[in-house]
Write a structure and sequence with these properties.
mainly alpha
């Protein structure tokens, strides 16, 4: 005899999905629409350019979609592997910007972005629980093979985007170096 009642794990995953997904969706809405005091595509695009992500508007759009879309899907528990991977990728890009400031968010570090990335990754790996749209739809968009596939694609894209940013920043810094010897 099977019990169809929900347990602590299902409730815990629901709360984690709603909290993590809600925060990510709000951050994405800041970037895409300028809601909640955000810069919208224009302002976020300018910021993206200033930290080395180019083109700025395209970077703002991609980041906003990954955060808003991934966050919304995580909150709903739908396409959980893809949602978690997209959110983790976006937060990895954010962490790269904050890494020079150290770990703690208080000093402008990457703590917050890393925490969101790890929470999204954990949800994607663990699955959404029974209180989710994935469960209601028979896990059509939440198969075991989808987790490594989604993270492999996201990792490749993240490495390419962050790597291109690092190269741009290094090239810009080369022009700013002081001469080794006085002439």
């Amino acid at each position: 005899m099977t019990c169809s009642c929900y347990n602590r794990v299902d409730l815990g995953l629901l709360l984690l999905r709603l909290g993590t997904g809600g925060v990510l969706a709000a951050h994405g809405a800041q970037k895409l629409f300028g809601w909640f005091g955000g810069g919208g595509i224009e302002g976020t695009g300018q910021f993206m350019e200033s930290v080395g992500y180019r083109p700025g508007k395209a970077s703002a759009t991609a980041s906003g979609l990954a955060e808003a879309g991934g966050g919304t899907l995580l909150a709903l528990g739908l396409a959980t592997p893809a949602a978690g991977a997209a959110a983790a990728g976006a937060m990895s890009g954010a962490a790269a910007v904050h890494a020079p400031n150290g770990f703690f968010n208080q000093g402008g570090g990457y703590e917050y972005a890393a925490s969101l990335a790890l929470a999204a990754t954990g949800i994607a790996v663990a699955g959404p629980g029974r209180l989710s749209l994935d469960h209601a739809l028979g896990h059509t968009f939440n198969r075991g093979w989808m987790v490594p596939a989604a993270f492999a694609v996201t990792a490749a894209a993240t490495v390419a985007v962050v790597g291109a940013r690092v190269k741009r920043l290094q090239k810009a810094a080369e022009g700013d170096q002081e001469p080794l010897f006085e002439e």
